[in-house]
Amino acid sequence: MTSTKRKPPPPKKPPQARDALRFSFGLRLGLAFVVAVVAYLFTNGANAPNRPAFEVVRIPGKGKGLIAQRDIQQGELLIREKPLFRVPSSTTESPQQLVWKLLQATSAEGQAAFWDLSYVNLPETVTQRDHVALAIFETNAVAAGQQVGIFPGMARLNHGCSSAFNAVYTWRESEQMLYVHALRNISKGQELLTTYTDTKRPRNERRAFLSSHYGFECTCAVCSLDNAGSLASDRRLTSISEFYRYFATWGNGDITGVEAIEAINNIWKLEEEEGYWSERGRLAADAVWIAAAHSDFSAVRSWARLAAKWYTIELGGDSETVLEVVRFAANPKAHTAWNSREPLPVGGPWPSAG
Ligand SMILES: C[S@@+](CC[C@H](N)C(=O)[O-])C[C@H]1O[C@@H](n2cnc3c(N)ncnc32)[C@H](O)[C@@H]1O
């Protein structure tokens, strides 16, 4: 018989030592976590999409305005806002009385937001509250369907011309809500700008309008171009407007579908050169209409895809308008205008439908 001598088990570490080990392991894990979080905040956190996209700040020479607090992506939803109140675009009632009446009917919080807004075009000697209310309304109200409304959040957006504005707003009747989307990528620190008027006109005309209606001399990136740059921009913008007027004559049959689509392509090219990205969904949707009227199946598809892309940026992918053009891309014959003119291949933007 062989005797086997068992090895004694290793001595158990005293409890304090085990706790100390666990503690130091936990400490290292905790430290690693903190380092990872700090690193994330440095690299991505400042741009995390759930961080507010912008803040309201004072901007020299402009009053208040909106500055991007992080990089913003083209098409990002920036503001979704209910109106404080809306008034009809035209009314027989005195605008002053109407604004005053509607203002009185809003909440105390709403009224405070309203009185905080800026106004122009009122002599300092005029201090009656209803006069001031009307001046605030006229300085800040924007189109909202068939009416004009006050939205205290979006009202802080200052103006930029043609290629200078980077945010667009749209009213959703079904939701009774105003949406503001980023028209292009906006870098942290840049100002968010919308446009107060159709800026497809020369600098002197734009400036005259902005000065008389909004009381400021526009010094946006386009208005600040040197003379040669400004002249080139003016020429492009004037040509764009002329092409718009020209292609609209397709409606009375003055030009062919091919000529109308050519005009749209010319607008597209000029806007590309100008850096004017707004209204592209609408323009492509007009091409869809012309192509559908002439029963050009492939052209409807191609333009409808383009319309969907640009409408998504300006209006949001879930807007009814986007869903409608997507339907036309899938089924061109479903378009209201289908086959309402003589059949004709009108042409598309085929290779660059994006
Ligand atoms: C709708 S408000 C915009 C927000 C306003 N800055 C504020 O402080 O509440 C319109 C007014 O802002 C100013 N504004 C807008 N865009 C401007 C610009 N590009 N340059 C200078 N002032 C501007 C003008 O006084 C204009 O009447």
Automatic annotation (TrEMBL):
Cross-referenced SUPFAM superfamilies: SET domain
Domain of life: Eukaryota
Membrane as UniProt keyword: yes
Alphabetical UniProt keywords: Membrane, Transmembrane, Transmembrane helix
The SET domain, residue ranges: 52-197
Short name of one Pfam family: SET
Residue ranges crossing the lipid bilayer per the database entry: 21-42
Protein name, UniProt field: SET domain-containing protein 5
